[in-house]
Amino acid sequence: MSTRSKLSGFYLAALAAALFAGRAPAASGAISFVDIPDSGNPVAKLAEGANAPSVSAVETEDGWRFVVKGLPKACSAGPAKPEDKDFFASYNRPVKFGTFQLPDGKGVFMSAVSGGSGASDTVLMAVNPRKCAAIAMDMQFSAQATEPIPDITYTTNWNSPVLGPERAFLAASAPEFGYVTADDLKKQKTNPRYAWYFWKMENSARDGKLILHWYKGKPVGVGSEEVAVQSSTVTYTAWFKSGVTAYDSVKDEFRPLFHPKSRDCWPSALKLYGDYLLIGTRGEGLAIINLKTSVYRRINPKQEAYVESLSVKNDEIIVNKTMKVPFPKF
Q1: Which of 90, 100, 249, 301 is 20 to 30 A away from residue 171, measured at CA?
Q2: Which domain holds residue 114?
Q3: What is the 8-class DSSP label of residue 303?
């Protein structure tokens, strides 16, 4: 599980002050949310004089238990396990919190995010003050555009029979925070958001004829531009920590053409040569696409796998101004 900085009990304090003083925000849909900006706290005054609620997994004389402090009465519930500490001890930044309806009254909901350049986590947590119970799920998202399906871990009490409503609420809320399954994606083949996922599903395991799809609008799921080349109305762009797209400015459509196996080997050089697009990468050598036939090949010269420049002369590809590779016309 990724490292997350400490959960701010201050934000939950504001919510608890409103909730248990009978001043919970008016319900709007399933959750009554209070948004938390990057800085400041719009409901800070509600927390004045309130103990800061917190949720943790703690080793007690009775074994590991979930402890909820800062409510009208501190309490604990079990059993928990040492690995549950990670869900509550560290959050990067709370995104939003609010109340939701449970069969026995109001519950407290909170989401938080963390992450770096390679992955991110979204934690969803539900607290039932009357049961003195907390339950959470951690969705771990890869930053690689071809990998939209998150890995999921849960608190060890996830399958507790007494937490069915709380568990069902978090599971139902997860899609709002980006959760998708392979079955969900089967219905999303025309969605530009998942263009890279389908490119990988259909193309990345082999050289040969690419299966390509056009999507309306400009490319999505990409970083900053590394390099671009243009042919007539089509712009071919290599993207930082992503792949290569073709964008037709007249049709206002794009399609993914290539993605490295690892986003850390993103495309770093492009060269148009007749009907071919040459793609140099940071660690995976060359990819060559015949733009007329959509057939492509990979070439990985180990001594020049990190490509900074490409040129073609006398049917030879010149990599990094020094290495010559015979042009494999196909």
Answers
A1: 90
A2: 9-180
A3: G
pTM of the model: 0.72
Helical ranges in the chain per DSSP H: 9-20, 85-89, 164-173, 182-185, 195-203
pLDDT of 238-270, one tens digit each? 999 999 999 999 999 999 999 999 999 999 999
Q: Edge to edge, what strands does the sheet with 225-231 contain?
A: 215-216, 253-258, 244-248, 234-239, 225-231
Same domain, 101 and 139: yes
> Within a 10 A sphere around the Cβ of 286, how many other Cβ atoms?
23
CA distance 183 to 148: 12
Which letter, b or e, does each residue of 74-105 get, where b requires 16 or more Cβ atoms within 10 Å of its Cβ?
ebbbbebeeebebbbebbbebbebbbbebeee
Ramachandran quadrant class, 225 (left: phi over 0; alpha: psi -120 to 50; beta: rest): beta
Amino acid, single-letter form, for residue 13: A
Say how many C-beta atoms besides its own lie within 10 A of residue 152's C-beta.
12
∠ at Cα 162 (157, 167), nearest 5°?
60
